[in-house]
Structure formats: structure tokens, C-alpha cells
Amino acid sequence: MTTETMPEEQLEVWVDQGLCTGDGICAQYAPDVFELDVDGLAYVKDDDGELRHEPGKAVFVPLVAAQDVIDSAKECPGECIHVRRSRDGVEVYGPQAVPS
Ligand code: SF4
Q: SUPFAM superfamilies given for it (predicted)?
């Protein structure tokens, strides 16, 4: 059980590459937010399409991609996709999501 959040709430997402298995599920679900780099690991990317390689770097989740990003976090076999609320930084989906 995770803390639910309003659909219109601004979310951010980051990936812990240390746990990524490279299966690419996230990039299939939300290709505008996740992409596999040449190292075979998933990274988030800005709205300009630039991959963010800094460890723990989060990007804003476009509203149209929010459900796909949430589904990615739920399905991620590495449990390494972290989705948090922008307003308070609380993880709402992912391995560190706060129980409701
Ligand atoms: S779904 Fe998770 S484990 Fe799979 S590529 Fe994406 S971040 Fe890595």
C-alpha cells in the first residue's frame, strides 16, 4: 500500500542505476521519460530529451506521462524507479514509498 496522490499533482522521478536490470520496461511504458543508454541502463530525461546521468537526478514528470511513469515504478523488476511529489519530496511510488 502506498500513499496515493492526486492525478494532477506534480511528480518527479529518478532511477537508481545501481539496481537497474536493463530490461527496458520503463522505456516501453514511458519513452518520453525513460531511455536506455549505451551502458544498457535506464536514465530519466528532461523535456529537451537530454539523459540525466547524475546519480539521483530527478526530472519533472509530464502530466500526460504520469500514469505510465507510475506503472513503470510498480512494474520495475529492479525496484529502482522512485516517484515523488514535487511539493514535499515524499516518495509516492517506488521502493521507498511512504505507507498510507
Ligand atoms: S524498469 Fe526498472 S529495472 Fe527495468 S530498465 Fe527500467 S529502471 Fe531498469
A: 4Fe-4S ferredoxins
pTM of the predicted model, to two decimals?
0.91
Distance 26 CA to ligand 1 centre (A): 6
The residues lining ligand 1, judged by C-beta closer than 6 Å to any ligand atom, are: 15, 20-26, 34, 42, 72, 76-78, 80-81
Nearest CA to ligand 1 atom 1: 76
DSSP string, the chain: ------TTS-EEEEE-GGG-----HHHHH-TTTEEE-TTS-EEEB-TT--B--STT--EEPPGGGHHHHHHHHHH-TT--EEEEETTT--EEESTTPPP-
Domain at 11-93, CATH class: alpha beta
pLDDT tens digits, residue range 34-52? Answer: 999 999 999 999 989 999 9
